[in-house]
């Protein structure tokens, strides 16, 4: 439909509009300029004796030439106004023929919002699938390998073979620990099984900086909201440990008036900036996709307070949560 409107506008311009534009410029601009130039033409072309205005009306006196020039200036001002009105009318006609309708723009905005939410849901579903595959596949094989190496180490006599088995057993144990940390970073199982409050408590336990918890989250929330909130808190605690120099952090929050609110604060040096590559920029985009808001207050000298909000409702205990992240 838009293509047909554009084609109609092109045909209208090629057949009718360009002669109208040319006529408007001629009448409103070129004719007044010719009148203004009458004294100059009388002095040069007419040698001070006679010239013709618009090649039609003879002028042979200086008072008449100056009067016509003054009339040309007045007509030039009127012509400039007429050209402005014509340009506005032309722009309105173009907007009417080419610009998308209001309903189309609203439909596009709605579809764009839905597509962003679908992308986030698909991203979270893929993270959960990768976490399950690693947990049930590679991790179990590494556990079995570690156990077999431990048994072989017990049965091997002292010597070079026992030393090699001990080294391999240690490497397998370290690889298993790294894989578990990787799985936890992709999508922690505690978040899927026990919810946001337990996952935040687990992240606080893992933080090098002591963390005080004050969470009031008795029920579960949509999966996409829980995942985004958890990763914001985890990234904030990681930044506290890496950059703030804080001796203590605090995570608080709850659900009130249809909004899930979490706050992460510390007593560090302050001066943090979301746009300075702290890892929160991408998380802020994920929060905005869910119609949430992430704000940071970090004056130089501290303290720092990061707040994230999500408009959502908790899921009832008997209410299943769909894979897309919504309460069914």
How would you portray this structure in words?
- With 328 residues, the protein is α+β, with helices and mostly antiparallel strands.
- It has 3 domains: 2-99, no CATH class; 122-186; 194-311, Heat Shock Protein 90 (2-Layer Sandwich).
- Helix content is 64%, strand content 12%.
- It has a 5-stranded mixed β-sheet, covered by helices on one side. A two-stranded antiparallel ribbon has the order 1-2.
- Helix 1 packs antiparallel against helix 3 (62-98) and helix 4 runs antiparallel to helix 5.
- The longest helix has 54 residues, at 102-155.
Structure described in brief:
The protein is built from nine helices and seven strands, in the order ααββαααααβαββαββ. It is of the alpha+beta class. It has a five-stranded mixed β-sheet with strand order 3-4-5-7-6, with helices on one face. It has a two-stranded antiparallel ribbon with strand order 1-2.
Quote the CATH topology of the largest domain. Heat Shock Protein 90
Main sheet specs: 5 strands, mixed
CATH class membership of the largest domain: Alpha Beta
Distance between the termini: 38 Å
Anisotropy-based shape: elongated
The spatial strand order of the largest sheet comes to 3-4-5-7-6
With helices defined by DSSP (H or I, 4 residues minimum), what is the helix count?
9
Helix content: 55-70%
Number of strands: 7
Query: Mean pLDDT, nearest integer?
Result: 79
Rg estimate, integer Å: 38 Å
**CATH architecture call of the largest domain:** 2-Layer Sandwich
Q: What portion of the residues fall into strands of 2 or more residues?
A: 5-15%
**Broad structural category:** alpha+beta
Which residues form runs of ≥5 with pLDDT under 50? none
């Amino acid at each position: 439909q838009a293509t047909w409107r554009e084609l109609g506008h092109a045909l209208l311009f090629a057949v009718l509009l360009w002669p109208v534009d040319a006529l408007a410029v001629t009448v409103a601009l070129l004719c007044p300029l010719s009148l203004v130039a009458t004294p100059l033409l009388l002095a040069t072309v007419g040698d001070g004796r006679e010239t013709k205005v618009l090649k039609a009306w003879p002028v042979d006196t200086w008072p008449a030439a100056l009067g016509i020039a003054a009339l040309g200036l007045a007509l030039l001002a009127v012509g400039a106004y007429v050209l402005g009105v014509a340009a506005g009318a032309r722009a309105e006609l173009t907007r009417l023929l080419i610009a998308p309708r209001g309903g189309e723009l609203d439909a596009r905005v709605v579809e764009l919002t839905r597509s962003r939410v679908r992308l986030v849901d698909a991203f979270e579903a893929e993270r959960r699938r990768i976490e399950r595959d690693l947990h049930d596949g590679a991790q179990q094989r590494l556990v079995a390998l570690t156990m077999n190496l431990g048994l072989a180490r017990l049965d091997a006599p002292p010597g070079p073979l026992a030393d090699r088995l001990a080294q391999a057993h240690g490497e397998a144990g370290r690889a298993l620990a790294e894989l578990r940390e990787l799985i936890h970073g992709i999508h922690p199982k505690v978040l899927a099984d026990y919810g946001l409050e337990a996952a935040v408590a687990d992240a606080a336990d893992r933080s090098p900086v002591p963390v005080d918890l004050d969470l009031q989250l008795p029920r579960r929330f949509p999966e996409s909201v829980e995942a985004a909130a958890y990763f914001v808190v985890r990234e904030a605690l990681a930044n506290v440990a890496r950059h703030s120099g804080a001796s203590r952090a605090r995570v608080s929050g709850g659900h009130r008036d249809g909004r899930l609110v979490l706050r992460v604060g510390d007593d560090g040096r302050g001066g943090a900036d979301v746009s300075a590559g702290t890892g929160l920029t991408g998380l802020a985009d994920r929060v905005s996709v869910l119609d949430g808001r992430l704000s940071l207050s970090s004056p130089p000298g501290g303290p720092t307070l990061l707040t994230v909000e999500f408009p959502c409702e908790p899921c009832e205990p008997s209410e299943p949560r769909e894979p897309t992240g919504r309460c069914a």
